[in-house]
Each structure stands twice: as structure tokens, then as C-alpha cells.
Amino acid sequence: MPAPTAEVIMVHMKKKGGLMIAYCLLMAACAGLAGADWEGRIGQFSLNDAQRELGQPESCVGLDQGGTACSWMMGKGKDWMDKLVLTFDANGQLTTVNRVHF
After folding, report:
1. Within its chain, how far is the Cα of 60 from the centroid?
2. Which range is the signal sequence, renumbered to this chain (predicted)?
């Protein structure tokens, strides 16, 4: 089988280029959320802020001391997943940040 010509390669790249750009933008957006300075937001960031930025949490549980811990899925593969677990005090302010890799 002969090697594809440069013209054939360019046509193929043009067809797939939009998809590649969309994929790169999505990866950059996800990396931006995962790489955010969450520790710097402690005491200044609320559960409502987190929901606006990250969407609905995957789960939330009430804590004995009156706060709430919520988790968001940040990435998932065949054999792994990354979660961001944020804990909020009784007033809804961020108190702890945990990144968990399963």
C-alpha cells in the first residue's frame, strides 16, 4: 500500500482539526479546575461558590460537628479515578481540601 500523499494528510487533518481543538480546550479547562489553588481558598470560599464553579457534587455528607463534606469527580480512567473532596464548616465556608486518587 503506498504512503498517503501530503494532500491526503492535510485533508484528513482539516477534518479532524476541529475535534482536536475541542479536545484540547476541554482538557485545559479540566486541568484548570483540578490545578486551582484550593488551599488558598480556605475560609474564603463557600459551598455555593464550589457548586457554581464545579457543578453539583457527586455526593455530600453531613459531619458530626455540623459541617458538610462534598466530593466531585475530577477525572476517571479504566482503572483509576480522581476526586476532589472539600469540607465546609457549619457556616458553609471551606475548611479542608483533599485530592484523592483511587
Report:
1. 17
2. 1-36
